Every structure is written in C-alpha cells, then in structure tokens.
Fold these 3 entries.
Entry 1:
Amino acid sequence: MKNIVVIYFLTLFVCFSCKKENENPILGEEVVTFKINKLPENHNFEEDIFISGDFEGWSGGKDQFKLNKKNEIYSISIPKYREQINFKFTKGNWESVECQLDGNPIENRTYSFDGKDETVNVEIVNWKTGEITESPSTASKNVSIFEDNFLMPQLDRQRTIRVYLPPNYHNSEDNYPVLYMHDGQNVFDKKTSYSGEWQVDETLDKLYEEKGFSIIVVAIDNGGEKRLNEYSPWNHQKFGKGQGMDYAKFIVNTLKPKIDKTYRTKADKNNTAIIGSSMGGLISHYTALQYSDVFGKAGVFSPSFWYSEEVFDFSKEHSNIKDLRLYFLAGGKEGGNPTFEGISKTAKDMDIMIELLKSGGFPAQNINSKIEPEGKHNEKLWKNSFEEAITWLFKL
C-alpha cells in the first residue's frame, strides 16, 4: 500500500510539474517506474540523472524529469500519455548521455504500455564524458555546417544548418534540386545524433554512383525542448503554443532564399522537396500543402497526426492540389502494442489522411504510401525507407 501511495503522489508531482512549465504533460492512470539498479563503477552519486525522450521534446534533461535518489538508487515514475515512449538517460544534457562501454551511442530505449503498472530495472554501463574517446564522425566529406547560428527571425532564435552537396558539385556548373529536412542532428552523422542517423549522405552518394542522381540537402537542427512547438502549426492545450506556421515561414522566406543565393540550385517547386519524421512528418505535411507553390514533393514519415485534429480539416481545405507528390510511410509497430489488426494508430491516421486527400481531389497517382509491418518509430525505419522515398519523389 505504501508503494502505491508513493507512486500516486509522484505521478501527481510529475503531471503538476509538466503543467506548471506548460510542457509535455502525461495523461492516463497507467504508470511505469524506471529504477536504475546498476551504474558504472565510477559513477558520482552526487550527480543527478534525468530521463529524456519523445514525451518531453528530447530536451536532454528537464527538472521535472529528474530521477529521485534514495540509497544510491535512482527512480522515476512516468504515467502513460501514448502507447510507446522512446528515451535515454542523461546527467542533464546530451554531452552526458548514457552510452556503450566504448563510448559509442546506444539505440533509443523504448517502453510500451500494456495496461498495467510496472517497474522496469535499468542498467547503465557508461556515460558520455569529455574523457571518453568520441566516436568518429560518420558524415560524408561533402557534408558541412552552413551556419552554426543561423538567424530565424520568425521565431527570434538561432539554429545550426547543415548542408550536403552532391559528389560532383565542385566539378560541374550544374544546378541542383534541393531537399529540406528537419532534426538535422540525425540526418548525416552518428556523432551528432541523439537517436541514430538516417545516413542520408551515404544513401545519396550511392544513388549518385548508381544512377547519377544529384541533390543538395539542407538539414535544420531541431530546437531541443522547443521541438514539439516548432513542428506543430497548431496550439495544443497541454503542450503549448504551436510555432509551426512561423517555422514554415522561416524555411520559405528566410532559409530557402539564402540557400538559393549561396548554391547553384534549381529553385522551382518541381525541384524542391521537404522530408521529416514524427513531428517532422507533421510539419513537412503542413508545409508542403500550405506552400504548394514552393514545394513540389514531400516525404511524410511516421506523421504525428495525433498531435492535433486540426491537421485533418486543414488538409481537407488544401486537398485539391494537382502537382504535388507525397510519399507516406508508417510502421506497423509504431505504437508498441499494435491494434487495428496489427497496424498502429500512426498507420491508421495516415490511411485516413490519404483517403481524405483523395476525396478532396488530390490525384491518387501523386500519392505513394507504405506500411512496414515490423517498422517501429525510430531512425531505422526512416533510414531504410529514405532511398525508396527519394527515388519515387524524383521519379528515378
């Protein structure tokens, strides 16, 4: 009985803290308690440990998600807010995230809620620190930082922008199509990623060698704790104000003109694409429909249509677009506990969206959709489908 009372009040504390910060609240009565029962031998127990994941914007460590510590045992209880969460443990930032023994990154941890309260024992084998030999960059030599502190006037903040140039860029005078992507930390480089990389550069290098296809990729880093808000065009009663409209305006009115001025681009809509996953899928979907005069192609991977019902009304109003190509992707196990005959809610929402678009006049031949039965909500699913998506979008 005592344990139940403790979990109950801890749950209230976590939810109250989220609401107080106007950040990601957690809904529902089901609770999972993560208990860290094994840590590296050199762990300093005066340091705090945090849980960070998709349920709080991959911030790296928010105060309300700091683990409790008692007798050198760390623990925290997380109430359910959707079927599955992806997360890692840190000591307050991504520079101190848990890692493998050799210092290399680990895959995201996942937890699937199954209808009952549960305690999960966790083992952390190492922490990333300045003393650990960092894993080498996996980015191709044709990937570079366009600007570390690129001004986003629409949002009054700055962001790192990464650029991939085709292997033949400096040996030709050609102009190239451009692909814009979100979560830039995860696009090219395992070293900078917080949950695995898409290997977009390796895939495009391969497509250049095999098919002669060349494209410029502009990857925009996400804003950490601002990620959910920046990638949603609509407000959320719990998650806060949506800033996605301003984020999309930033891409269209500020970033794209600078890219077109700096590089030899094909600036027309037929040669301009946008791709993202999860909340990045949501903002890619919105941006492509809202600015169909700018973007002629979009990859909508594991879209977070659950975030706002407004996306369906918006899409219905913008469905009569004749010259936009959309590639949709979802995994059959995105929710951890698939329902709807084995298809997760992500896939079901995606299918609803596709039918809505078609009913509004969107040409069926301009939509390609794929459900990967074993696919989960992670970079592995998105990485493995990127080549197929880019090949179809650009009719290779």
Entry 2:
Amino acid sequence: MTGINPLDGLRRDMPDVSGQLARIWSILPDARLVGGAVRDLLCGRGVSDIDLATPLAPDVVMARLKQAGMRVVPTGLSHGTVTAVLEGRPFEITTLRRDEETDGRHATVAWTRDWREDAARRDFTINAMSCDSAGVVHDYFNGRADLAVGRIRFVGDARLRITEDALRILRFFRFQARYGGDAPEPEAIAAIAALSGMIDRLSVERVWSELRRILVGPHVARTLVQMHDAGVLGHVLPEGYDISRLGRLLACGAPADAVLRLAALVSGDVREVARRLKLSRADTTALAQTRGEPVPLPGMGADVLAPMLADHALRDLSWRTWLRQADMAGQRAATWDALRAGLEAMEKPVFPLAGRDVMATGRASGAMVGRVLARVRRWWLENGCTAGHAACVARMDGVLRDGPPAET
C-alpha cells in the first residue's frame, strides 16, 4: 500500500471523475482530496463521494470556480463548504478548518491554512489523509500504516476526540467493522467505555443513521458484541436487545436489510424503539409488521397461505418467516426456502366483491354495506380465497336474507 498512487485507480476505474477532478485542480491547484476518498482509493475500494479541501477561503473558492464557468452551490458556508457541480456530479470543497469550540455535538470553526491542523480535527487516522494533484499522500498521523494492518485509531487523544463529538463512538464501530481487524484498538475501547454515556446527548436521528449503517455493514454480530462489551449498545437500545437472535438470522442468510435486522435484534417493544429513534413512517410500519402475526410456516398449504397473502404484504410475510426460522434453529433451511419461494409464486388474492355489488341489491346502504362486505370477506378468507365473484354474490344474498349484520 505504501507505493500506491491513489489517482492511478481513479484514472482506471472512474476516468470521467478523474477528468472532472483534473479540471477542478486546474482552477484550485492547491486543493487536495481528503477523507474517505483517499482511504478507499488506497485500499482499492469503490469511491462514491469525492471531497476536497483547500487553504483558500470559501468566497475565493466560489469566485474562482464561477469565473471558470463552473456551477457552484454554497452548501455550507458557515462550515466553509461549497459544492462544484460538473456534468451533474457534486464535488464538495471545504476550506481548511480548526475547531474553536465544541460541545460534544457541534463545533464552531475558523479557517486555517495549516493542513496538519485541519487533519488533526478529524476522527480517525485513516480518515485524516489527503492527496494532492500529483498523487502524493499527506499522512500526518500514520493513517496509511493503520489502514494496512486494520487498526482504527483516533487522531490524537481518543477521549478528546469523543468529547468533541460523541457520534464518533458509533462511527468507530462502523469503521472497525469495515476496515478494522478482529480486535479493536485497546486505547480507543477504553475511551469509549469511559464516555459511552455521552451517546444519550446525541440526537436520535444521528444515532439511528449510524446504527442503520452498522446493521447492514460487515461483521454485524461481532461489532454488536464489541458495542455491548464497551457499554455502548445499552445506550443505543435501552429497550433491550438479543444479539444471539440476530446472529441466527444472519446465519440463515436473510436479506441484508437494516429494519429486518433491527426487528431481530430488539428484544423489547419495537414500537417504542421506533418512536424513540424517530424512525420514518415506512420504517416504523415495516418494523411493526415484521414482528407481527400471522407467520407462514413450512408445510402450510395454499388454503392457509392465500388468506395471509390477501391481508398482508408479501415482504412482511417473508420477513416474518426469516425471524421464525432464526427462532427455530435446527429446522432444515430448504423447507423455509421452499415456503418463501411458494409465497413469491402465489398471486395475491383479491376479494371479488365491491360496495357497488351490495348497493345494486337495493337492500343495503350506508354503514350496512361495509358490514355486509366484511361478513362475506370473512367467509371468503375462511375458504381459502377460492370463491369467485358469482359465489361471493350468492353468499352476499344469503347474508342479506338473514338480516342486517350487527355492528362489530
């Protein structure tokens, strides 16, 4: 890794981005690639975001880019960030900074021309490297060596880095899972264990954002055990958790979905978890439905599965089978796979009767229409959703002959 020029991989794998970057460098020759782009280029991983830093002030950066005919967006001027847009691709360019004041969540910054001073405010050594237009990597804190051996280390004093921003506790575990070795760095773990209570001061949106990434990242179970051992996971999920259940779900080969994995991990009230973490409405519904009933089981026939599919989304039913499979460890995976394949092959049953059918009889109106439909639909479900329109009409006539259904 020592002799690697990060830009060689960029030219090879992303020639269009390399060309766009060259154009920016022609305008801002002192700018450097920073952060995740340098880290991932060094270890041969795909790069999504290309971020740069510069010793120039934001207004100077904007003026130069605009003068060159480039579209520029002032995305975060208070933090020194502008975004250059080339052929629809954004490049964030941030003025070198130093922290003037921090409170564990936010920082007041000032501009600097000192690259090392800017690197010193970053979280981990592997994220503190920068790369200039010649492909030279500037590495003030031995991040390149740490990356090579899988060591996630805070820049400088670990406790100070955490007190500046407590979210770094969760970021540590996310990066440890993706770039670290089997055992986390002892100094980092000691600092995290001592300051784990600071997580309670973070916004829940930030906590869920990091937890979501951890749940869909590599080495999930191992990472969660490390978080538990450091006293972190209890602050993230005070409602309770069961890492072993999630481990069994992973062993089943379930889809790598954060909400599904959260449903397996949480041992407490999932609705309370969703409320506290302020999950989106879609994620809240998915979490609750995944832990709901009924659950399809191997050996069930179409007459049992069809009513389930009529009343529930296929994804909800499928995810429930993954959780139940994890709970019933030892049962042959092939039987569960066959069950899910059968569900996916089934066409979702659609109740063939509508309110207009009831209204057309002239014998029901208003709220009674809904009650008649509910009575017939219950019969349709109980009979495996096989009755067609004519059979349901006949059943409706019988319901009407028996008298108006009572309210339920």
Entry 3:
Amino acid sequence: MSLSFGKAAYAKIVQRLIERVYHQSPLQDSFYEQAIKWFAEKEQRDQKATELEQQLFLFENRQQQSKKGDQAAIAKNLKQAEDQHKNFSNEIEEAKFQRYSDLHALCRDILSLCQADSFADTNNLSAKLLGTIQLICPTRGRNIAKENQKARHLYKAVLSIRLLDRMVMDGLIDHPFILERYEEGKSLPYTDETDYHPYRDDVHVPVLMAALLQDIGRCHPVCQNILRGADGTYDEFRELEAEERNLFLQTSYTETLNFLQDALTVGRYTGRNKQERDRFVQFEIEKRELIQLLIKQAVRPQEVLGSILRIPQIYTGMVLSTRSSYNYEDLPKAALALEKTAELGKLSKNAVAAFLRIVGLFPQGYGVTYIPKDSDGNDMERYEYAIVTGLYPPDFRKPICRMVTYSLTYQASARGCIVSAENNLYFPQGRKKLEVVPEERLLEILRRLVYNFEERMASPLLPRCWHPDDYFINQKNQNLWNKAVIIQN
C-alpha cells in the first residue's frame, strides 16, 4: 500500500508510523501494545490449548474402549471436542497471521517513505524520514525519554536497511539469499506499484521486521515488572542494577525469539500455480530464517551480519536517548562512541566505517550553528542557523545542511550548504573565530535568532548548536528536503 500525503502532512504521517510501532492508547493498537497483550495472555492461552487437547485425547480413548451402545454418545462428544480444538487452533493461527500482516504492512509503509529507484533519491527520502523523527521529538523538557522511546524503533529500522545496502555494495555481506535477491532486483523498478520485487520483499521487509522485533521481548511480564515494578510505579527509564539488567536482557532476547516463533506466522500464497506456490513457500521459510538469524547475530556484533541491527541500535540509543543525562548538544558524540567501540574490537570495524560513511558526525535534523561567508569568501562576524538534512556527507565532520536563517532572519528553507569544521560552532576553532566579536553584538544576534526570552537567557553567547524543534513545528518550515542549490561554507 502506498502512503500518499502532501508536504504539510508529512510530519503527521511519520508521527502515525511511530505510533503504529510503539504507543500507549486506549485502543491498544500499536505493535508493541499488541505484543504486551500477547505475552500477558500466553499462560491462559497455553492452558486452554492443553485442556482442549486432553479433552480430545480422553474422548478418543473412550471411543476405543466403549461398548457398542455407548458409541453414539461418545462419538457426539468426540466430534464436539474435535470442533472446539480445531476452532481454537484456527483462531490462534488467524491471530498469528493478522499480526504478521500488520507488521508486513507497517514495513511496506516505512519503505514507501524511505526508498526510491535511484540511490540519490533513496538517501534523500531516508534523510527526510530520519530528520523528521528527530525534529518531532522534544529535545528539552520532561517528555524526552518517553517520546524518544516511542520513536527509536522506527529510526533504528530505517538505519538498518541503509546500513545493509551499504554493506552489500561494499562487498561485506556474504549471505547467499541476500546477495541473490539483491542481484535479481538490480534491474527492476522498486516502486510500490510493483507487485513483487526480490530485494524489497525478500530482504528489505525481513530486515525491517527484524529491527522492529529486536526489542519486542521487553513486552514480556518479567521485563515489564523489572522496568515498571509490580504496581507500575517505577521509573522505566532509570539505570538498572547489574543483576536486574542481566535478567532483563536475557529475558528480552529469549522472549523476542519466542514471539517470532509463536506469535507470528508467514505470508500466504493466493495463486493457483503449484511451481509458484512452492517457490513462494520456500522464500517465506528463508525470510523467516533471515529474521531469526539477524536477531541472533545482533548479540555477536563483531560479526558483519550482527552489525546490521546492532550498530543502528547502539547509535539510536544515544541519538534518541532515554537517559536522565540526555544532552542535545552531545548527540554528535554517538558517532564518535561507535568509532571508539570498533577500535576496542567490540564492533566490526568495516561495518562501523560503512555506517559512519552514511551518517557522518552530525545526526539528521540536528541544529547546526555556523559562521557564514560573504560573497568574497570571507568569514562574517556572526553566526547563523542550519539543520542537518543529508546523508553521505562529503567529509565525516562536514554535514550537509539546509540554511534556516539568512542575515539573522528566518526564511523558508531554499538554500543548502556543506558546513566546514572551521566555521561550525560545535568545534572550538569555530567558536574561537567569534571570540573577538563584542558581547553587545553577540547579545543582539541571540535576540534576533532565539525564539523566546527564557531560552535566550539560558543560551551561551557562542552556542555549539541550536534546538530546531520549535522552528519545525510550523508546517511551512517542514519542507527542508526539496531540491536546493548547495554551497560550500
């Protein structure tokens, strides 16, 4: 199914996608809420299945041992038991298929927002989706952890397929099924209107599924009790004690695999061609095995295949942090932390290098403060605001941005720039250039740029970054990813 939307509606579409994955509402219709329900009812379901099987077994035995005169009554009871057992099994199977179908539709809708037929368009769409997630999440106030927790599953899933693609292109992946589907899909159009695309349907969708399922085990009652307490009064975002954390991680991992095995089925073939059906069934088995393999390998992230989920998971955990120590200014440190972890041998160096080539130092949607140049290429004695809007920066420390202010005035975003490290106030050398500017002038710049007085009073005179969420709330400011002239700054 293709998602259709106008420019102004895009952020709302993204918000709704986030809520379809993880949300708390009276409807309990998000994927994670459905998983909480499934885990909570599992014991009751298993008990009922056992009772129905025992009842069936009992009447089958009675029929074999009964006298002729009793057989009619026992046959009637046996038929009733068989019907009850069959109906219950069908209900369970239909519920599994419904959950699978919902997850499959969700993944296809994610792809419709971040995938195109060309490499450049795919990266632009992915940057738009990642940037929008960042920009609609709060970066100040009380709800940071709660909103980041909701959004991180979608964010991580998009990064997982982008990392997968990069690693396939770099020859780092040797999984036969992935490579076969990639090669077969190379020359085919990827659009939503295409009924079947080998790489989209057999690789991208399963990888997205694996990414969304990776943390589903946290919905198990044991994990929920650790996070929230038996009476639901604990702060779920607190730092867990070592023993609690180990139990949480072990249970979450085991129950994730159980959920994949017991709560989801596979796709159903609807045609009449036996050869096609056999091929379809075989691919469904291989797709399920791929999902399982990715989840299992993610706990061994030194392996290349384990990196597909694990690296985006670590990165997302820092960019959309739920910790009380969250500091928006520090978000670029997420990329540096990955680099350091790879150096220590805890992550695949090649996979981390591939990932950092995609994201650069500055996350999508991050608010950059930079020194503009005049028409002669000289630095001006002020700073302006920009937002990171592009993947694959030409240099790790030089983000592709969209200018948000021009001559200290907010404007509809029409110009792009690649911000050099020397002129980026995130770095000491950028701030050092403006230290010669009088304090009165810096105060004037603050007054012109900062939205409200309270924020202005709390802002440093030479800010390392800015918070663009207030700017982005206005729908006319949300079109940051249309085509624009890019200048070097």
